[in-house]
């Protein structure tokens, strides 16, 4: 039997994304006040599609090291430009974009390589670097034939604070995962965990060590 999926109506998606404790809600004002965004690791263009739903109408550039991801993203038409390159060695000039996004990227590299990538993109951004990542290490093997989908490391909030980021929490770790760190699989338990997570989001927002994932924001000298 075909599995049905629910997607919110188009008119309500922007409201959902602006929810103050949603990972996009935390940064939507930064995104909408920017003219150019560089998205590191496009995968299937999901992140940029959500940013377009928020109302971003500026120029977007997507980069990825895995060519099939670029081909999939090209079909979605969310980007003005797509470039095949490694985040640790990008071809862009200094201060050439307003914002650099690294959503679900750093956990796919060894820690020292992830830090190198952050340092590499820092000279590209004029205003902000925005990172979204799980808190701590969660195992994940390669997916969709992409070896870069494997999780190689995990960061804690203090590690990004040391690099100059302000960190906010999203979700609630102990509710959304089992004791061994694996995601909850039971549909009923997932529903209960989601309801509980909403109630606890405010706590984990200000105390990201308790959260499921984090959004890290680094403001640069403009």
Folded structure, characterized:
It is a single chain. The protein is α/β, with parallel strands linked by helices and 222 residues long. The chain has eight helices and seven strands; from the N terminus they run ααβαβαββαβαβααβ. A seven-stranded mixed sheet has the order 3-2-1-4-5-7-6, sandwiched between helices. α5 (111-122) links the parallel β4 (97-103) and β5. The longest helix has 20 residues, at 187-206. Mean pLDDT is 86; it is low at 1-7.
CATH class: Alpha Beta
Rg calculated over all Cα atoms:
17 Å
Task: Classify the fold: give the CATH topology.
Answer: Rossmann fold
- What global shape is seen? globular
- Counting structural domains, the number is 1
First and last CA, distance: 54 Å
Question: What is the CATH superfamily label?
Answer: Vaccinia Virus protein VP39
Report the average pLDDT across residues: 86
CATH architecture: 3-Layer(aba) Sandwich
Instruction: Name the helicity range.
Output: 25-40%
Main sheet record:
7 strands, mixed
State the strand order across the main sheet: 3-2-1-4-5-7-6
- How many H/I helical runs? 8
Structural class: alpha/beta
List keywords for this structure.
disordered N terminus, Rossmann fold, 222 residues
Topology (elements, then pairings):
Blueprint: H1 10-17, H2 23-32, E1 36-40, H3 46-54, E2 59-64, H4 67-76, E3 81-84, E4 97-103, H5 111-122, E5 125-134, H6 157-162, E6 166-170, H7 173-176, H8 187-206, E7 213-219
